[in-house]
Amino acid sequence: MSVAYTVLLVAQAVLGLVMILMVLLHAPKGEGMGGIGGAATMFSGRRGAESGLDRLTWGVFFLFLVLCVLSGFGIVK
């Protein structure tokens, strides 16, 4: 195993953990069980911070996807 491949695997693991944490930071989108009792808060919230977090999460996702393709097709050995 080369050094580049080891670095690629470590970067994939770190990006995977970062992506999990970022998804957990997102606010829930739906009403869930709160909609049954009339306690729905679907149209209130902090949309500015959520928009930035969305963009960052998608960026991490695409970087993770590129690293997966590089390692999956054996481009980095």
Question: Care to describe what's here?
Answer:
The chain has 77 residues and is mainly α. The protein is built from 2 helices and no strands. It has one domain (1-24, 47-77). Helix 1 (3-25) packs antiparallel against helix 2 (47-72). The protein is elongated.
Helices and strands in order:
Elements lengths: L2 H23 L21 H26 L5
| Secondary-structure content class | mainly alpha
Rg measurement, Å: 18 Å
Number of domains: 1
Give the tally of β-strands: 0
Distance N to C terminus: 7 Å
How would you summarize what this structure contains?
With 77 residues, the chain is mostly helical. The chain is built from two helices and no strands. The model has no long low-confidence stretch (mean pLDDT 82).
Short descriptors:
single chain, 2 helices, 64% helix, 0% strand
